[in-house]
Amino acid sequence: MAYKNLKELRTRFNISQVELAQRLGISRPTLIKIEKGEKALTPQQEQICDQIFKFSEHNDSQIRINIPQQKLDKFEQVLLYVLQKVGAKPNVGETVLYKLLYFIDFDYYEKFEQQLMGLTYIKNHFGPTPREFKKVIDDMVTHGKLEAVRSTYFSKDQKKYLPKVNPNLGNFNGNELEMIDSVLERYADKSASQLSDISHRDMPWMAAKMQENIEYELVFYRSEEFSVRDYDAL
User: How far apart are CA 104 and CA 99, in angstroms?
Assistant: First the structure.
């Protein structure tokens, strides 16, 4: 939609110029020009605005648990399962793991309105990064569940993790395993840079502020490229 009333909407939803400018990836002076009608939003910026305002409008009435639940025991088992299946691939280093975990968590939330691992993802320049990753990894290495190794991939340093124990498949239901396998099938062969570029097109990442947590609820405003849910069947 065209935003001739951008300032009015921003004020209505109590969003500051600084916050909106950050989410759009522009400077505050540029946003001021847009609000004055001296400059137009790009189609992508209009899409981001559309989702931000829709999210703000409906956020108070949501009954889903949007706050990350941080199921760290489940995270351990998912990580072991992922590494067992694709960890030996030369492209699967730490950065690729970040993106695989993100899509597992956010795709599952979109499709089933429940959290699988419930990790907290931060928006950074390379895509979504789980805040809990280092703490859990360090603990798993200490207890002999993982081995951390250094390698190179296309002449770049890479940190890889190799599972030393098997995942407990009894911790997963059918929907969870199906979603994990689906994400691995779609993304596990892609490089870190490819996955970063892909994640940057996903609405939860696009609408978040840099270095802030990415909202799970924004999966319900995804484009067709990323949506994993058949909304026509509801």
Answer: 9
CA distance 42 to 230: 29
- d(Cα 142, Cα 163) in Å, to the nearest integer? 13
Per-residue pLDDT of 76-127, as tens digits, reads 999 999 999 999 999 999 999 999 999 999 999 999 988 999 999 999 988 9
pLDDT at residue 14, rounded to an integer: 79
CB count in 10 Å sphere of residue 186: 14
d(C-alpha 116, C-alpha 92), whole Å: 21
Beta pairing class for 156-163 and 146-153: antiparallel
Against a cut of 0.70, is the pTM above it?
A: yes
DSSP 158: E
**What is the distance between the alpha carbons of residues 110 and 143, in angstroms, rounded to a whole number?**
34
Summarize the chain as % helix, strand, coil (round to 5): 55, 10, 35
pLDDT at residue 169 is higher than 50: yes
170 and 77 in contact (C-beta within 8 Å)?
A: no
According to CATH, the topology of domain 6-61 is: 434 Repressor (Amino-terminal Domain) (1.10.260)
**CA 161 centroid distance within chain:** 21
pLDDT averaged over every residue in the chain: 87
Closest CA to 109 of 218, 234, 230, 195: 218
Q: Quote the tokens at residue 67.
A: 């706050």
